[in-house]
Structure formats: C-alpha cells, structure tokens
# Entry
Amino acid sequence: MIIKKLILFLTLSSVLLFCSGCKIERIDINSETKNQCKQILDYLSSNDSEGLKDLFCKTVSSESDFDNQLSEALELFDGSVVSYHTIFVQPEQMNES
# Structure
C-alpha cells in the first residue's frame, strides 16, 4: 500500500513538474511576418541598403554578388511606399501555381 502511494506521489509530482516547469514561448508568426514586411518596405522607401542587408543571414549577405543585387533591387523599387494592404495566402495555395 505504501509503495503504491509512493509511486502515485512520484508520478503526480513528475507530471506536475513537467507541465509547470517549462514555459513554452509562442511566436506569433503572422505578427512577425507583418513586422518584417514593414521593415523591408521602410528600408526600400528610404533607400537604406545597409538596413536591408541586416535583414539577411550572414551566409546570404556575404555572397559575392549580393551587394549588386541589393543595389539593383533598390533601383527597381525607385520610390516610396504611399500605402499598402495585407494579402493573406493559405499555405495550400502557395503550391498551386
């Protein structure tokens, strides 16, 4: 009887520690994506190549032709954002093209 109570106590304690001991940090992907898109548009509008470059990982931004491609993107944009709206695409729709 004591062994059963001990096993039950240890099991419940383990479950309690497991469930409450770890804080799972949730990232709001939609919010993060919107923030990154806004940053990109802001950098394009202000012709800020260094700001844009900082958004890319080191592997991509250290490519030999990256600076030229970034300059071409800024020339192609050539203007400033007046307004924009968000378009939501379902993940299933991305593979339909």
Observations:
- The longest helix spans residues 2-21.
- Helices lie at 2-21, 29-45, 49-54, 58-61, 66-77, 91-94.
- The two ends are 65 Å apart (CA to CA).
- Residues 41 and 75 are 14 Å apart (CA to CA).
